[in-house]
Amino acid sequence: xxxxxxxxxxxxxxxxxxxxxxxxxxxxxxxxxxxxxxxxxxxxxxxxxxxxxxxxxxxxxxxxxxxxxxxxxxxxxxxxxxxxxxxxxxxxxxxxxxxxxxxxxxxxxxxxxxxxxxxxxxxxxxxxxxxxxxxxxxxxxxxxxxxxxxxxxxxxxxxxxxxxxxxxxxxxxxxxxxxxxxxxxxxxxxxxxxxxxxxxxxxxxxxxxxxxxxxxxxxxxxxxxxxxxxxxxxxxxxxxxxxxxxxxxxxxxxxxxxxxxxxxxxxxxxxxxxxxxxxxxxxxxxxxxxxxxxxxxxxxxxxxxxxxxxxxxxxxxxxxxxxxxxxxxxxxxxxxxxxxxxxxxxxxxxxxxxxxxxxxxxxxxxxxxxxxxxxxxxxxxxxxxxxxxxxxxxxxxxxxxxxxxxxxxxxxxxxxxxxxxxxxxxxxxxxxxxxxxxxxxxxxxxxxxxxxxxxxxxxxxxxxxxxxxxxxxxxxxxxxxxxxxxxxxxxxxxxxxxxxxxxxxxxxxxxxxxxxxxxxxxxxxxxxxxxxxxxxxxxxxxxxxxxxxxxxxxxxxxxxxxxxxxxxxxxx
Length: 572
Known about the structure:
Shape: elongated
CATH topology of the largest domain: Rossmann fold
Radius of gyration: 34 Å
Number of domains: 4
Largest sheet: 9 strands, antiparallel
Strand content: 25-35%
Helix content: 25-40%
């Protein structure tokens, strides 16, 4: 018997303000983006576009490309800054079958563009590039909801040239990252080339090609992957939140099988949760999970974005794997599956590493992977909010560092970390988190070097000036000229390997100074020195350096003055 085919799950990823929500907005015919603070998506959402809507938007493009759609539709996932791949994962990869990488055609690559590409590479997810905001190109003549190939020919030659330049800059940037790409109407092989679709979320231009490419890729290359393989419901928790009349609910992406009201659901995380589905809800057609308009249903088959009401789910972690089973005999098998999936998030711990915190399992996994790729050590990693206990724990480390990804950190916690000397890094973007850490590390290394340099005795050479013997002994006070290097109080002077004494004070023009450099004429005092006995006028005296000091100076030789380096080379 032929297996049922589900809708492909499509993640919409990219930089925060490059038009992800506006793109889906146009499909839904809603005004979600206008209701979002700052026009940036704040919570994760999912929207299912039925196949009939796909066909009506694509028009005759499907026929021209010889695509006969048999998929039930397309399930889009819209995400905040930390992208679908950091939350939506399953054993062995990402839940998303396909992705749309949204890039503002006028701005090109941004930090989250790079981050999204890393996730796409990591999970080997096929993707299409939506080159958005073409309507903002100077002189653009909008053709609402038309395919790109039609609207392009309605533009002036100057506007066409401007668009060509912007699109091929994007294609070049993708090439640098190892992706062969081409404008959608010029692709020769969809299996080898990434399609770049110029489009506008405001005017709807380019949408027919975008949906045609996504549907065609799913139909031609993912057919086997879209088969529903089991009756057991398999999903991933997007969010845990209160819902009026139902209490705590789970927003879930169901990517395989079926969930029914009354099923036992098993959820992985810090602790395994086993509970019953009290109510099952799905958004109204063409609405999404952030909507408050839901329909109560008895069952649903993958792929779908759904809301589940159940008891004892308050402590469930977003990103947790979920299984739904009908028979009690299958519960233990489901427990083993979710446990093994959670255990995939593994780290090699390092005694001198950082503490990591993330708001989801997938987020933690993505952060661990990104740090490991850069050989940044990790000591401990967990999901959830940063605690006072963890700050106190980090305080005892050689390098007290905590990185928090996705979770909100209160001002009180930030102050607590500061008071305990813990360096705290927080961001909703892994790229920014690591960039801030690396900048701090670079600055910290400089500060450490400067502190270490201050403790080192620097090379120096002086000549005892004739006629400037102010006191012969106890202490000897006399004038010298610094021939090379640096003279500081506390350094010891020697002549031909024999210690003359330690410099107690350095004076220049009658005032005490911290140090003197080449060319300076200064007075120095040596409590143990004796003019006429262990040194005399015109004698050359060198700063005494221990072997350990010499080794450290060589390490910092680039930071030494040229005359100091010359003296150091003489020691060799």
